[in-house]
Amino acid sequence: MKWGRGVAGVLAVFAVGMAFGWLAAHAAYKKKVDNMLKGAPEAFQEVIVKRLNKKLKLDREQENQLRAILRETHDQMSEAREEVTPETQEILREAKDRVKKILRPDQMNTFEKMAAENRAGRLFADDAETVAASTAPPRP
User: DSSP letter at 123?
Assistant: First the structure.
């Protein structure tokens, strides 16, 4: 009987350890994904560098050159987005108005809160600065 309790105790400790490990790994992964989605270009660039390094076995100089290419490309893409911001702003404003028309009054508050809290919602922003901020990550 005592032997059975000991085994059960060890299994319980093992299960709790696995659960905590999974939770920690999940939290770390979620944070990494959130950073990429929130527009942290460095986080996204590091994922690309790591992926290519794993497959291609890049040396230090190649990694540095790849990071430079990714930064330059990001800057060029940000400039290109800025050029279409007025058109994008109008399209997003129209989309927001269309969405509002299909919502009930009790849903409107939730929608507005969502628009203020997440990236997808910020795309429904009413002003160009918010749209630009949601599509162009902050510069270091």
Answer: T
Cβ atoms of 135 and 102 within 8 Å: the answer is no
pLDDT at 35: 65
With CA atoms as reference, report the closest residue to 138 among 39, 50, 48: 39
- CA 108 and chain centroid, separation: 25
Could you tell me the two tokens for 43?
């986080």
Instruction: Identify the pLDDT of residue 69.
Output: 92
The model's confidence at residue 118, banded by pLDDT at 50, 70 and 90, is low
Residue of 33 and 28 predicted with greater confidence: 28
DSSP annotation string for 26-44:
HHHHHHHHHHHHTT-HHHH
